[in-house]
Amino acid sequence: MKNNGEIEVRIVIVGTERLPIPPVAGGAIQKWIQSISRPLSDLGNEIIIMSPSGPLPSSKSIRRRRSRIEYLYLNADEKLKETEGFGYYQAVAKELEDMGDVDLIHVHNRPSALPILNHRKLLLTLHNTHEGWKFTPSPKRLTPRRQEMYRLGLRKADAIVVNSNFLKNFVTSLYRIPPSKISVIINGVDTNLYRPRNKKEIRGVMGLPLGPLILFVGRIIKKKGVHFLIDAFLNVKEEFSEAKLLIVGPPGQFGIHRPSSYATKILQFAKREDDIIVMGPIYSDKIAQIYSCADLFVLYSDCPEAFGMAPLEAMSSGLPVIAARVGGLPELVDHSLTGLLVPPHNTALLTKAIISLIEDKSYRRRLGEAGRRRAIRFYEWSSVARSYNRIYQDLA
User: Cα separation of 362 and 341, whole Å?
Assistant: First the structure.
């Protein structure tokens, strides 16, 4: 029992099947888990994080402890990742059986894993519509077994957390889950790491020119709308010949080491354009410097984003954000206050939005400063951790 009357909770946080935690190989969910673990631990919880071993030795499970946070790496043999990840979660279930007393299992983005995990208290966090819906309003693309496991998992969860009202409405309407079972807790950002810096100095170190710099950070996949951004950028170049587009991210899905056909086309086109710079993925804190050297950030998603971590990091870094008016992005980006929202699939309107911010430096600065204030006020990880801790206390 803690001094404030709360109980000490022993929690196992289960990462997804392809990438390790800490996120040495990337992954938004992996980054999320790593970011919230310390503030959850500071609240007096004992945290055990399970994930595949990734680049670590994979002959057996490995334990590493940092303060009140323990990292358990499971055998990362590819066989564990087959059959839609079920092998990995079967390995998780076996570890849980041998672990002893645990108050709560916190699973991320894999409802179909919950029927495999026999534990009396299960919390499920959904970060996006990735598993199950494939970014469509129908679960038909799932195998029949996965569909049934998905439904069972949503029903088996003692509580469900999502990061936007969009995602809550999506889940309740598609799978008929009672709204009272689902809580909305927004994502967080490290505002000390993602902060405004000396733009001129950082560009000098990175060898980037001082003209208008448009930034995209994320996976180079169709749903992120990179092709729309490139088309708009080419239009922008007709008015601002010194403008540059900087693309930072892996060429396809995290954990898959070969570029997708979509990413290959984007990369081949970028090689022919001197003003499009592709840096590839950056998994270290250097990414914070990348944000602070840009003039504006664009995420023009082709399909609904539940929330969007990169736009939040851009806001915290003092950048105005241009985003597609889809999914949960309008809950993050306040139109004409912290950025601009543009209807999807409209290159002409995206071009107009980018040009409006390049032309008006004071407007650009005003939006960026407002976004920074909003990030500090609402999105600190310590605040997100307190919201999760209330759910932990209720369940434990």
Answer: 19
Angle at 128 between CA 111 and CA 184, to 5 degrees: 85
CA 32 to chain centre: 7
The model's pLDDT over 51-104, given as tens digits with 9 standing for 90+, comes to 998 654 443 455 665 567 999 998 756 555 555 567 889 889 999 988 888 999
Q: Which amino acid is at 25?
A: A
Long-range contacts of 87-90 (CB under 8 A, 24+ apart): 88/17, 88/52, 89/14, 89/17, 89/113, 89/116, 89/117, 90/116
Handedness of CA 396, 307, 375, 315 (dihedral sign): positive
Residues 6+ apart with CB under 8 A from 271: none
Q: With contact defined as beta carbons under 8 Å apart, do 221 and 260 qualify? A: yes
Distances (CA, A) of 127 to 28, 39, 347, 375: 9, 19, 28, 19
What is residue 141's DSSP assignment?
T
Domains 10-188+380-395 and 199-378 equal at CATH topology level? yes
Domain map (residue ranges) of the chain: 10-188+380-395, 199-378
- Specify the fold of 199-378: Rossmann fold (3.40.50)
Residue 87 structure tokens: 């092998």
Confidence of residue 195 (pLDDT cuts 50, 70, 90): very high
Question: Of 166, 268, 264, which is closest to residue 221 (Cα–Cα)?
Answer: 264
Q: Give the Å distances, CA to CA, from 46 to 62, 80, 181.
A: 18, 27, 25
Taking the CA atoms of residue 347, residue 352, residue 354 and residue 360 in that order, the dihedral angle to the nearest 10 degrees is 180
Sheet holding 122-126, edge to edge: 62-66, 69-74, 46-52, 10-14, 104-108, 122-126, 159-162, 182-184
**Which residues contact residue 54 at a Cβ distance below 8 angstroms, ignoring those fewer than 6 apart?**
19, 20, 24, 25, 73, 76
236 near 354, Cβ under 8 Å?
yes
Q: Does domain 10-188+380-395 have CATH number 2.40.10.10?
A: no
Q: Report pLDDT for 138.
A: 47
